[in-house]
Write a structure and sequence with these properties.
Length: 285
């Protein structure tokens, strides 16, 4: 199975992110999406993990299914929150046994209503180290990067230092979604200033529903730039016009990122294929 660090050294990658569905209807919809996206030959596809193990089996099953039944290379997300160290060790061991070599190591966020939160491993870099301990060189391990800074960090400079230290033990990074190329180039420049040159993939979230994306942005401690949001809000309930503007602007952002030598493009698909396929076609990938 191709490792993501090797794929990144071979040239720009394209990758698609999905979440494990909770219902049979969601499963069927995801199957359709995967069938529609597989012909685009993505470099890899990634499957999110519900913090604290809420999707533990579903993520594992979907990742192994992708590995054994499709031509696509999967990456499993894994979060440290609300897991004992031994549970994380076991999960990593199961991925190793199944032949899954690509892991995105995350801290995860405790559920909002949680009364008690368990962190045997408090930071994502510790999960990277655990993956190395379990798999030696067998795993290619990625980590999350937050262009606007992580919301819990006291300031951007401190967050950049922590990120550079985390990227120093990982093989690659993937960013939270953002909407202006400068947010990405600033991140890469800041990391270079800290002598960190680990490849960081930009995360692209095409806007197909502005209210939904504003909610996601708020949850991840960032925002849709107000001038951009206004362009979508001005279109009101015209879903087709919103989708079309979303695809146009995401295509533009992707082209700017490729021109800025980004090592690839990572698409947040929300388990749907249309916008991603259109952007992919517009870019002539
Ligand atoms: P960390 O790297 O541990 O950072 C968390 C905080 O700790 C930051 O403020 C950082 O500055 C600080 N910090 C780091 N090191 C130190 C140190 N040495 N000393 C002091 N402070 C330090 N969540 C899910 O639940 N499931 C998913 O599948 C998932 N996938 C994601 C994919 C991507 C690409 C991204 C960008 C995020 C994803 N998330 C996911 C969300 C992620 O779990 C949250 O953003 C979480 O709040 C932070 O995770 P992290 O791995 O960046 O944490």
């Amino acid at each position: 199975m191709p490792r993501i660090d090797a794929l990144l050294s071979a040239g720009p990658t394209t990758s698609f992110e999905f979440f494990p569905p909770k219902t049979d209807k969601g499963e069927t919809a995801l199957r359709t999406t995967l069938n529609e996206l597989e012909p685009l030959s993505p470099s890899f596809v990634s499957i999110t993990y519900g913090a604290g193990g809420s999707t533990r089996e579903r993520t594992h099953r979907l990742v192994v299914d992708l590995l054994t039944r499709t031509s696509m290379t999967p990456m499993a997300h894994l979060t440290a929150v609300n897991h004992r160290r031994a549970e994380l060790q076991e999960l990593l061991g199961r991925y190793l046994d199944a032949g899954v070599e690509n892991i995105l190591a995350l801290r995860g966020d405790p559920p909002r209503d949680a009364e008690e939160v368990l962190f045997d491993l408090e930071r994502a870099w510790q999960l990277v180290e655990l993956a190395r301990e379990v798999g030696g060189d067998a795993f290619s391990v990625g980590v999350a990067a937050h262009p606007a800074g992580h919301p819990l960090a006291p300031d951007l400079a401190t967050d950049r230092k922590h990120l550079a230290a985390k990227l120093a033990v990982a093989d690659f990074g993937v960013t939270q979604f953002f909407f202006e190329v400068e947010e990405y180039t600033r991140l890469v420049d800041d990391l270079a200033g800290l002598d960190c040159h680990t490849p960081v993939l930009p995360g692209i979230m095409p806007i197909t529903n502005i209210r939904q994306i504003q909610r996601f942005a708020e949850l991840s401690g960032t925002e849709v730039p107000p001038a951009l949001a206004d362009r979508f809000l001005a279109l009101g309930d015209d879903e087709e016009a919103v989708r079309s503007l979303g695809v146009e602007l995401a295509t533009e952002l992707c082209q700017q990122l490729l021109d800025a030598d980004a090592p690839g493009l990572h698409f947040y698909t929300l388990n749907r294929s249309t916008a991603t396929r259109e952007i992919h076609a517009n870019l002539g990938l």
